Amino acid sequence: MDIEGRSAAASVTGRGADSCVADDRTREAASTTAHRTLPIAPRRPDARRRGPCKVSADDGRRPGRVARLPARLWAWLRAEPTRACLHLFRPNGSYLGPWLCGAEAPEAVARPPGAVYVRFAGLAVTRTLRDADTALEVQRGFLEQLGYRDPRRVQEEGAAVDLGCLIRFYTGKPQPEEQQDRVCLSGSFPIRKGRTQLHKWSERFVSLCGTCLIVASTDGFQGKTQCLPLIGGKVEQVRKRQHCLQFTAAGSQGQTYYVSYNSFAEYLRWLRQASKVVSQRIGSVDLSCCALEELPEHLFYSSDITHLNLRHNMLVNGLNQVHRFTQLQSLNLAHNHLGSFPLTFCNLPSLTELNLSCNDIEEVPPEVCHLISVQSLILDGNHLTCLPKQLSSLQALSYIGLAFNSLRSFPAICTCLPAITRLCLTGNLLSALPLVCLAKLPLLKHVELRMNHLSSLEACSSINLAHVTQLDLREGQLSGDLDLQCMVGLETLRCDRNRLTSLSLVGQTLRTLQASGNQLTVITISSCPTQLSYVDISRNKLESFPCSICESPVLEIVDVSRNELAELPSRLVKGEALRRLYAGHNRLRRLEDSPWGFVLESLDLQHNHLLDLPAGLLHGTLSLRTLNVCANLLETLPVAIYSGQAEGAAEYPALQELLVTGNRLNDKCAMSLAALPHLRQLHLAYNHLATFPASKLAKLTDLEELNLSGNRLHSIPTTIHGCKHLHTLSAHSNAIDVFPEIFHLPEIKFVDLSCNALMELPLPENLPPKLQELDLTGNPRLALDHSALDKLSHIPCLKIDPRDQQPSGGEAHILESVWTCGVAESQGQRKKLCVSSLACPEFGEGGRSALFGVFDGERNVEVPRLMQCTMGDVLWEEIQRSPTTAPEEHICHTFLDTHKKLGTVGQKLGASAVLCHIHWEVYESSLAGMIPRLTLTMGNVGGCVAWLCRAGRVVRLNRHFVLNDCLEERTRLEQLNTIITEDNKVCGVTTHTRLSGCSFLYPSVLPRPHVTSVRLMPEDELLVLGSCALAQYLSPSEAVQAARLVGDPLAAAKRLVTLAQGYGCHENLAVIVVRINPPRFDEDDAVGCCTCEANAVGSGGADPGATAGAGSSSSGALSELSSEISSEVAGSEVGSEVAGSEVSSEVGSTVSDEQPPLIGIPEVTGPGLTIALPERARCCCLHPSASARSFHRQMSAATFSSAHSDPGRDSSDEEDMSGPLSSQTYPAGQLLEVEVDVHAHIQPELQASTASTSSAVVTAVEKDNGIVFVAPLCQEMQQVTKYDSVVASNWGESGARTVRKLQTCLEVPRSDHAETTSILQRIHNHANLTHGIDSMAMSNGGAAAGQETAVANALGWLGRNGSVVNADHNGSLLEVTVASDAAPVRPKRSAYFVSEPAPALDPDDELIVPPELEEEVKEQMRQYQQQQRIQQYQQQKQELESHEKEHGKSQPGVFDTAL
């Protein structure tokens, strides 16, 4: 039949979430495979996308195979953009041929005879089109809605052969065998009636349709037929006869038929279908998704049908005989494209439930009044604007569903329906709700008004709505005050995501209160809420907790997170029924010290300002299972106090999950942890742990997951082998140099020891049988031989650093300083990894660009893996195919083509994705000609994120395609009348409106990406790509600031994953951190970090080689220091080693008075800062002075200091001195040693992108009219400056205090002391100008991390791989030499602190050492004593600070440079 299509939108099937899940066994097998970051090999330059004309049409195609267009047809099609092509298929699925449309079209292979059937995403046929011309319009509209904008591209994609998985056209109605079996099974078979042998076998026509077995008396249905009702009956196998079934009707006198089948396959088909029918207890028939155009005639034989499901069919004109079902009570006709309300339903007097959702109905006819028995009428997802008056005749109607229509006002006719108990007006256009209308419905209990445009509730003073028990006002536009005191019987209130400032209600019967996502400051409950058990008032602006809520004696769950609370009331924490309390992201500084609730199971206090926890938190809360106190300022944990029992035994706390990531915990917390023997999950990442006592770890025998990352550990105690249940160990970003004894743990699965200092890997004979992942990346000193690699090759996922390769010259060497990346993935507590990462730093021809991507499949593994493997190739094909097209089009078409290439997998499964392409572009300048620039082009669908750090601030590149965050997508779905379920999921499947895959949800879910292009500036520091779960637990600012604290991108990526897991994330996580250092190619700005002038300033002239390379290097490489200092110094860090091949490895340094050539240095200016050396060539703070009387370094085998030796120590250094340096009088020329960081000065435009520091040996020489600083540079530091932003630059207030403690060491009492102090102050100003310490805006968690890093740098320095090196690394000394002609340089005197002997170890630690591990334990004890001396060093500094505060003495030349 000819049915004109009204839109190109395909309907959504009702298969539910289960239909989107593939076979579990297949995906479990896929999740066990090794998962590594996929590098994409660049394609050949001549690699082009093959057009559809490459294969002829007659290349031996077989049924189901699509042939490409012949060259002749393809040439005709490309001649004009108005021409189009359509591929047609036969009903059996075989390819018929193309249909061409346009002027002077050549003879096509196929000519459709009439109606054309369209099928979306491999689902049931959803529409019948009049002819092929209409089908071409549908195809064109489909492609444009996907995201193809260019008419030429739409023309080409329509002629593509791989479009059939998304949309396919048939010349006849396709009917798969499965659908045919569900509709009707029929055939001629030998049958026998009755159980006795008197009846003979005879050939009869048998049919199984609906609820009956129909047997014809003759061949066919011309004669008399017999029906055997099977509801409640039996179907049994007959063993005496092959392939025979026995059908028995219900009841003791039920008839019996024996049917013998010709094949075993046919026998199974009948057995499966009959078993479903006899298992029912009511006359229910499900014929949904069967592409029915009319009801089968055999179905009317089933006169006992009471429930009929016909959703997702094409029954536009096939319902004329539905009145023949005289006992029909429930009829479901959703998603049938009816277009109008069928009048034939009005002749069903027994009908009680009618579902006509999503049928494009625009009005309800007056004849609806004949449905007098209807109790439930569902009209969701249509285009209704009003309701007829005749609807008032339905006096039995108790539920009416009008969700997702176009109603602009409350339907007044609803007030004439006295039996209404539930009214659903979700997703309409209501702007106001007159509460008087609700008062006219005395039986009304449930009112659903979410996702409307409600701005007010029109109330009356005398109104009484005591009968309303549940009210849903979510996601509206309510603002100001909401007064609901007229609803005295209210039990459940949901008003989330509005703009309310105050809320007033009666709590007499209140059970549930959900008001998150508002701006509430006041919540008033007039009466005591004695039945209130659940409260969610998170994401508001509450400064104090509502006291009336605390009065509820049955309060069980309270979520008050993300408010502005300064304290929690004692009545709340002492609640007798309180089980879960979420109070994170507030301003809590202290907690009640009294005992907490006895039944408290979960407590979340993350992201507050807690300095300590009350001692009673663990005493009295013996039922506490989970405690999350991440991102606070804790230095210790409370000790559990045991309550003795009658037999003298101790009752231990039941705490199983303890999350303390991002605090200041020291080694003393181990005593508190040892008192928690039931711990299963322990997160101590990013604290200040230097050791973990072996005796304390031995007591945690139930431990299953241990995270010690980001501390200062040098080893993990050997007693870890006692944790027999441990399956996850994460200890990355430490200084561990001894591999822990974990290979003997029977349950170990995941081990992460990356970014450490491992040197060897002892392997046992047999690896743990359950070990799935071992991460050893970021250990540069670890070398594995072939035998070790062969043994480790059996691990499914082994991550190790590639073997050292010589740096390639040319472009690759330049590019490695522009971007570097690190990838981190975690399975979390899920059974499989459903995220994938794509990291290709050398992409395309010559590797001159980079490609990074993250793909999140939520619950499926297949789609992320396919996207990881194909998106790089698809993008390269797009670039090769149209190199002159805009990069935004390349990314957009990459997403769309990948969506097609997902094939049948992408029909039911989908994934979020973000893809970033960093590439070079060339633009023409009027002054400098063609200048290259670096551009980042990003595209994303779903919830994956892309954040760019620019000058310390976050630039959000992605768009979050979620209904709550994207108003544009919400408006689009409103126009489509898409059903949004109560959990905010599109059609109950996904929370995202843009995904790659999930084709069956078209047009509600589209693959069209959001694409943006950004020119990378010198201020850009890093790029963060993350999966969906990252944005749920880390804000963009917190994530970026945390990544900035770590120089190595690998360690930064792992830091973000660890923080998210510490904050409570149990989902899969994938993070890519890309360190970028964009070069500057502007015509009027210098390139690089050196600020030396191109021309010399002064009387001596410039060295010809001094300015040859100035401003020409984009990598920030450091120049060499030799006897003739070059002006090519362009580094951003000062190290304690000297770079270049001219420097030998001998130890020592001398000061020479040989006059070096003059070097021109420009004046350094900045906000409130101008530095110019008087009467001398201006230079940056890294370059030596060019004065005739200045000193500079000479390489000498006798005195040069290397990074691993004490610089210039002599016999006088052995003098025993206690305490810090006193302010003694040192004559001019005295050489002092202090520990200080010197920051390189850079151009103001490059301040944000260069934030690297290092310790160095710098000589400051004073002359008559100025002071000169000479800094030798190191090879290691040159490599660091290319990539890293070292943590020392991000100092907080604690770092400044640490500097002031040691300021007395820099006092030089001379007549020109003020000028000396002034120059030291300039170094401090350079550091602040370069790194913007005071201007850094950090979140609560970021501030804690910054303070943590400051203390870490006070005791040591953070390596570029994230590991911590001891503070006794003597290369971090600064020599400040004040010399003059009157005072020669005197021998150095000791300036070191002398620590007291380390305290004795815990006796428990000595008793548990076995004899065979004695040598290993001795080494660990030595390290422990070393850490004790460091702690003593810190304690002396604290005493010095307190002494300074007591005397109030102002120290001269105070500066905040890291000491």
Task: Set down the secondary structure blueprint.
Elements: H1 24-31, H2 71-79, E1 84-89, E2 95-101, E3 116-120, E4 125-129, H3 132-146, H4 151-158, E5 167-170, H5 177-183, E6 185-193, E7 202-209, E8 212-218, E9 220-229, E10 234-237, E11 244-248, E12 256-260, H6 264-278, E13 284-286, E14 307-309, E15 330-332, E16 353-355, E17 376-378, E18 399-401, E19 422-424, E20 432-434, H7 435-439, E21 446-448, E22 456-458, E23 470-472, E24 479-484, E25 492-494, E26 499-505, E27 512-514, E28 522-525, E29 534-536, H8 547-550, E30 557-559, H9 570-573, E31 580-582, E32 602-604, E33 626-628, E34 643-644, E35 650-651, E36 657-659, H10 669-674, E37 681-683, H11 694-697, E38 705-707, E39 728-730, E40 750-752, E41 773-775, H12 786-792, E42 797-799, H13 811-815, E43 819-826, E44 835-843, E45 849-856, H14 862-881, H15 887-901, H16 905-908, E46 910-925, E47 929-941, E48 945-950, E49 953-956, H17 967-976, E50 996-997, E51 1010-1015, E52 1020-1026, H18 1028-1033, H19 1036-1044, H20 1049-1062, E53 1069-1076, E54 1148-1152, E55 1164-1166, E56 1169-1171, E57 1192-1200, E58 1231-1234, E59 1237-1239, E60 1253-1255, ...
Parallel strand pairs: 1-5, 13-14, 14-15, 15-16, 16-17, 17-18, 18-19, 19-21, 20-22, 21-23, 23-25, 24-26, 25-27, 26-28, 27-29, 29-30, 30-31, 31-32, 32-33, 33-36, 36-37, 37-38, 38-39, 39-40, 40-41, 41-42
Antiparallel strand pairs: 1-2, 3-4, 3-5, 6-7, 6-12, 7-8, 8-9, 10-11, 11-12, 34-35, 43-53, 44-45, 45-46, 46-47, 46-50, 47-51, 48-49, 48-52, 52-53, 54-57, 55-56, 58-65, 59-60, 61-62, 63-64
Helix pairs in contact: 3-4, 14-15, 19-20, 19-24, 22-24, 22-26
